[in-house]
Amino acid sequence: MILTSPEPIELTLTNQWLWEIIDEFVYQFQSFSQFRRSPKLNSEELAYIKDHHYIWSVLSVLNVLHSLIDKSNINQQLKAYFTGENAENVAGEFGRSPLYKMLGYFSLIALLRVHSMLGDYHLAVKVLENIDLHKNTMYCNVPACQVTTYYYVGFAYVMMRRYADAIRTYTNSLLYVQRMRQMFQTKSYQNDQVNKQTEQMYTMLAVCLVLHPQSIDESINNVLQDRKYADRIVRMQAGDTKEFENCFLFACPKFLSPVPSSLEGAAPEHEPLQIQKTIFLQEVQQQIYLPTVRSFLKLYTTMPLEKLAGFMELNEATLMECLLCFKHKMHNIVWSKGVSSLEGDFQAGSEVDFYIDKRMIHIADTKVGRRYGDYFIRQIHQFDELAKGLKSLRF
Hints:
By secondary structure, the protein is mainly α. It has 18 helices and five strands.
């Protein structure tokens, strides 16, 4: 009715309700897709699904979401909003309605979620190219939507090997959850989902920090020092691929196949989860020696190749592969400016750098001094909010 009406429907719903409608729509698609691949289906259910293969198809779900986006002109409105223009000029008849505008915005987040579940991470982030995730906007007034957005963007960054961006995304989201903690204490399915996604983000943040160490906000780091996460981090730093696998299985979204199953039962290795897990573990396996290499390089300014090979109990050919891998994996695309989260420049992410001259490794410490500015700015903002709250009180 909303999509087929020739003119905007005069209906007013809260943003929270609109978000829950879109969120439930994607959840039903996800649940049916998993049900369709269940090995417990009886013959009658199999026959019905085979005859009605178009039910909850990927194409139909994407069509609904794109239709809401196009009808609301939300992308054009977001472009105008961030360039300082009047969004009303490009909103169109439907886009001026708060109902259609917010349904369009939440459909963008739903597309992020759907493409992430399908394993297309580049496209997942690209659909948000007109949303500035690096600062709060007037559209970010539904906490569950905010947390869901950061969770899926962060996971997409991890799978694209943009660990620095993933760490920044997860840290921003977890700081937001800490500030809004009281809001998520009440019992509801939305708050339960937010609390689960928070645990998943902490887990993936721990994985990212093992693969790409860097300093993070002290309050988030204190949570990671808790035994539940600290033990996992120690095992991953020791090269325990099983721990990497367990963390991935806990923190990943529910993956779906872009095409209906054959209904005869797919091989286990062809299941969407197994495919994505294999891709992730292959990346981890390539970096399994890097924490050890980093720990030795931080202790020296120069070191012969044969000495490091002896420490690591590797032959020199394998060690050279590890050092080249270290150079390659520590250079990632990192967002620096612009609205699109896909933009960025190649930057070195390691706190140590080195070069090899003949058979000698020369190490340079590239670690910069701790930045105190962010801490003081955050404290100033907190005091400012406190002062505003005190002024609003009446005695």
